[in-house]
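Try it yourself: sequence plus adenosine-5'-diphosphate, in.
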Amino acid sequence: MPREKVITTMPADDGDDRKVDAALRPKLLKEVIGQRKVAERLEVAVAGCKKLKEPLGHILFDGPPGLGKTTFATVLPNELGTTIQMTSGPALAKPADMLPFLTNLDEGSILFIDEIHRMPRIVEEFIYPAMEDFRVDIVLGEGMSARTISMQLKPFTLIGATTRSGMLSGPMRDRFKIHEHLEFYSVEELAKIVTVNAAKLNTPITPGAAHELAHRSRGTPRVANARLYWARSYAAARHDGSITEDVARAALDMAEVDRDGLDRNDRKYLETLIDVFGGGPTGVEALAATMNLATDTLSDEIELYLLREQYIVRSPRGRVATPRGFGVLGKVPPKPKAEDPQPGLFE
Ligand code: ADP
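Structure, out:
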């Protein structure tokens, strides 16, 4: 078994969803459901580096939140028989914040940086030589008396995760040897995840119920796990503890997750776009301000799914509700005027 050494600068109170995540996270690549091509490429990379006796190349995972970036990162040390240290971009304000992690590296171990796009440029530049030559340059003193010393590091693997790969600088992106983009999951894959996790939680669930939860989980394993936890509580409180299709449906209705799988925030987004802004086009900042939510929450957590399901599209002038977006709220889209943009053309 790999040794456990997890140093984390992520806030301990990271919300209930994070605690659920940790309990249900797969431990090995073969336990990861879906994303098969990604898992297979990582299996090859792991087997290759073991044979070549080299550290695994630096890896960048990108994709919407809750799709498994951290899961893949935490599975890899188990596959390699090594340790992992975890931190996140916002916790690394200055180069010195990196030092405890760099000095704690074991040979071939993993350093995971979540939200790596939020790391300041000065820290980014500090770790370039660490990524390339396993070395960092430390400046001691100030002004005329300042001198630079070079510190050799143990060979290691940096794993970065980002919801916004476009915000990473080119030089940073180029230093990762492996880039993997994670996609939303199919209902079948999510149903499998729900079934496996229900078994881990000793909760009986019917295939129909697993499908119902999966169908209403926004293509996202983290959401599926949260829905499963809720349905489990509901089944225990109101029934005999087993999740049947009827129980799953009633639990999700009570949580205000609609039959299309949209939750309160999704509907609020569409209602704001349609009722306040006439269906758009409108900028994401205006939408966020009207909904009283952070722009990042809107673009990272809400919009990506609405875009994928074509409830909205992005145009150069802002977000636009599609006929499907109007339809899901039971509304009729206005007739397009001749000068209106053709949303789909601008994606
Ligand atoms: P991200 O880092 O992309 O935000 P996580 O890796 O934290 O997402 O995934 C959220 C939760 O979803 C995990 O704890 C895990 O339980 C579950 N999960 C994610 N991907 C998978 C998968 N492919 N198979 C099984 N469970 C998964």
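One thing you can check immediately is this: The radius of gyration is 23 Å.
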